[in-house]
Every structure is written in C-alpha cells, then in structure tokens.
Amino acid sequence: MLWSLLVNSVGIFIIGYLLAGVEIKNFLTALGVAILLAVVNTLVKPILVFLTFPITILTFGLFILVINALMLMLVDALVDGLKIKHFGWAFLYSLLLSILNLGFF
User: Fold this and answer.
1) Binning pLDDT at 50, 70 and 90, where does residue 105 land?
2) Which sequence spans correspond to the domains of the chain?
C-alpha cells in the first residue's frame, strides 16, 4: 500500500509538471493529492460507477475515464496546492495516471 502511494505521488508530481494545464505546488502536495485521491476513489467513485452503470455499458467502459477525471476535479476543489485548469486537462491527467497505474500494478 505504501509502495502504491509513493508511486502515485511521484506520478502525480511528474505528470503535473509535464502538463501545462496542471499545477502542483510541491511533492508534499502531490503526496496529499495521492492520499485524498485514494480516499475519494474508495468512498465516492463506487457510488458514481453504480449510478452511471447504464452509460458505462453503452460506452463499453470508457465512461470510467470521465468518472476518473471527475474524481480529480473533486480533489482539485479540496486541495489548495493543486490547480487543474479545466475538464480537458483533468481527463488527460487521469488518463496518464491510469496508464501509470497499469504499468506498476
């Protein structure tokens, strides 16, 4: 679990540094974002997945990427050191984080 948190923190920080539409204050902010994102993904995401199950089926599961972007926008609203300019950047950011998580886990 700590390995996952550390890899996500590094990924959040590096991807945030590379994308022009995402600003992360420092690595401690990235660590906080990783922790809060884990909590939001545990508590809120299952509810959204359940409520949007029909559209997820219609889009062959691709709507999950939209839900991931919405989770990032929620974390952006809760953390001061993270700034995502708009939904498009959140979508790209979540896509890159998903690819990172596929590679390490």
Assistant:
1) low
2) 2-104
**60 to each of 7, 63, 103, 105, how far by Cα in Å?**
28, 8, 22, 23
pTM, entire model: 0.90
pLDDT > 70? residue 73: yes
Q: Kindly list the distances between the CA atom of residue 87 and the CA atoms of 26, 33, 44, in Å, as whole numbers in the listed order.
A: 22, 17, 18
> Contact 21/84 with Cβ under 8 angstroms?
yes
Q: What is the CA radius of gyration of the chain?
A: 13
Quick one: which H or E segment has residue 84? strand 82-84
Alpha-carbon span 69 to 86, nearest angstrom: 10
Cα gap 88→39, rounded to integer Å: 23
